[in-house]
């Protein structure tokens, strides 16, 4: 405790309130938070570096695993940059199917968030209901792409699977059920006094602060920042579709819930438009094995906000550089502001309200004072450094790996 009566409370990197490792070091006066220091770096997997050692098509499926919830967001964002480098024109039917999967993914992500938000404020009935209904869209994703997560629908130049009449009928029936369920949740969120009181004036982020701190996605739109890449810099089929960018001016957790619920209704509208106007024709074009020496930046409105991928080719079949900027990286700057002058007990719901994904966000940056002697690491060196780092701390999987090899598992 300091001489001014303030104490520091660490939350994380491992803590029941966090779904993934991250560190929040808060300074408190009584129950109120005066400042927060947020530290990342506990989930680094070296995916960007690993891409440099793999072909473009291998990178596609590796980048899809940046995040299990918004896997299609990352694979589409990457593939748009690659197709721009190669000058490929994807058939319209392939573009529409990509857009369909994007909106189904947004629906499952927002329903998942709604359940997590209910859990964080002790409303577990909402968690059970929303995750039950989320199974409808998970089943649709599985029947359409073959997978519940990491769908693998994208390929360079288009998509891997077409839609038939039965699948379209099944998706439309599922969307009808989800729309009815969402109307019920909108009623709960906007009429249930206990929930409104619990979420209102919690995690405040003014419009000015949201703009200054670069908040994106539902986090920014709940502070009345009308920014949505689907409308502002259209990609896929969005330029041909009619939808509203949902904003709210409550500037708190309640506003973030309202934005996501109303965005669900817009996604249902988009899915129906896509299926009604689904063009005929091929779903893919042939892509080259080697890609020109060129670079491209791709933007994508993921469920959590704007996702950005930078890709640089060098004329070979492998990218020279891949850089990912996930939406959580943008929104994390706002969390310290949201927590400021708030109660410690509100930390779980305030952090959850940006729908964070630290696995998406974590990158490794090594800062050294010796700028003259720069050193470049290959993927195997980075991997070995990680193994050695853990081994020094008593974590060694060598024995287990040898046992698995003897059993023929590896």
How would you describe the overall organization of this protein?
The protein is mostly helical. It contains 16 helices and eight strands. The protein has helices spanning 47-51, 56-63, 71-86, 92-120, 124-145, 165-191, 193-199, 207-213, 217-221, 229-232, 253-276, 327-339, 347-353, 358-361, 379-392, 398-406, and strands spanning 6-11, 23-29, 32-39, 154-155, 158-159, 295-302, 305-313, 319-325. The model has no long low-confidence stretch (mean pLDDT 90).
From the alpha-carbon coordinates, what is the Rg to the nearest angstrom?
Answer: 22 Å
Percentage of β-strand residues:
5-15%
Kindly, what is the distance between the CA atoms of the first and last residues, rounded to a whole number of angstroms? 52 Å
Helical content stands at 40-55%
Write down the overall geometry: globular
Task: Catalogue the unreliable spans.
Answer: none
Q: How is the main sheet built?
A: 3 strands, antiparallel
| Number of continuous helical runs | 16
Average pLDDT? 90
Multimer state: single chain
N to C succession of SSEs: EEEHHHHHEEHHHHHHEEEHHHHH
Give a quick rundown of the structure.
With 410 residues, this protein is mainly α. Helix content is 49%, strand content 12%.
Give the helices and strands, then pairings.
Layout (H helix, E strand, L loop, with lengths): L5 E6 L11 E7 L2 E8 L7 H5 L4 H8 L7 H16 L5 H29 L3 H22 L8 E2 L2 E2 L5 H27 L1 H7 L7 H7 L3 H5 L7 H4 L20 H24 L18 E8 L2 E9 L5 E7 L1 H13 L7 H7 L4 H4 L17 H14 L5 H9 L4
Antiparallel strand pairs: 1-2, 2-3, 4-5, 6-7, 7-8
């Amino acid at each position: 405790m300091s001489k001014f009566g303030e104490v520091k409370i660490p939350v994380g990197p491992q803590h029941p309130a966090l779904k993934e490792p991250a560190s929040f070091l808060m300074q408190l006066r009584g129950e109120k938070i005066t400042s927060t220091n947020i530290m990342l770096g506990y989930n680094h997997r070296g995916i960007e570096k690993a891409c440099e050692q793999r072909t473009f098509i291998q990178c596609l499926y590796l980048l899809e695993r940046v995040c299990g919830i918004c896997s299609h967001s990352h694979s589409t964002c990457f593939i748009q940059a690659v197709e721009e480098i190669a000058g490929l024109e994807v058939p319209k039917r392939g573009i529409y199917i990509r857009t369909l999967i994007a909106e189904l993914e947004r629906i499952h992500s927002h329903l998942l968030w709604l359940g997590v938000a209910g859990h964080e404020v002790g409303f577990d009935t909402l968690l059970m209901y929303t995750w039950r209904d989320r199974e409808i869209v998970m089943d649709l994703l599985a029947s359409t792409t073959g997978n519940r997560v990491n769908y693998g629908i994208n390929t360079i130049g288009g998509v891997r699977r077409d839609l038939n009449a039965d699948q379209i009928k099944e998706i439309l029936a599922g969307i009808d059920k989800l729309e009815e369920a969402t109307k019920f949740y909108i009623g709960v969120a906007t009429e249930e006094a206990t929930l409104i009181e619990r979420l209102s004036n919690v995690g405040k982020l003014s419009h000015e602060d949201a703009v200054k701190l670069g908040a994106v996605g539902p986090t920014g739109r709940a502070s009345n920042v009308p920014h949505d890449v689907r409308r502002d810099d259209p990609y896929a089929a969005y330029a041909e579709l009619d939808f509203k960018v949902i904003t709210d001016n409550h500037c708190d957790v309640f506003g973030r819930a309202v934005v996501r619920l109303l965005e669900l209704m817009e996604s249902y509208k988009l899915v129906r438009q896509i299926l009604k106007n689904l063009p005929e024709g091929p779903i893919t074009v042939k892509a080259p094995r080697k890609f020109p020496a060129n670079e491209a930046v791709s933007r994508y409105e993921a469920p959590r906000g704007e996702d950005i991928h930078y890709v640089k080719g060098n004329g070979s079949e492998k990218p020279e550089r891949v850089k990912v900027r996930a939406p959580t990286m943008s929104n994390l700057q706002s969390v310290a502001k949201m927590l400021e002058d708030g109660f410690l007990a509100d930390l779980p719901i305030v952090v959850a309200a940006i729908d964070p994904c630290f696995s998406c966000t974590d990158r490794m940056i090594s800062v050294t004072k010796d700028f003259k002697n720069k050193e470049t690491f290959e993927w195997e060196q980075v991997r070995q450094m990680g193994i050695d780092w853990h081994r020094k701390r008593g974590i060694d999987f060598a024995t287990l790996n040898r046992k698995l090899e003897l059993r023929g598992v590896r």
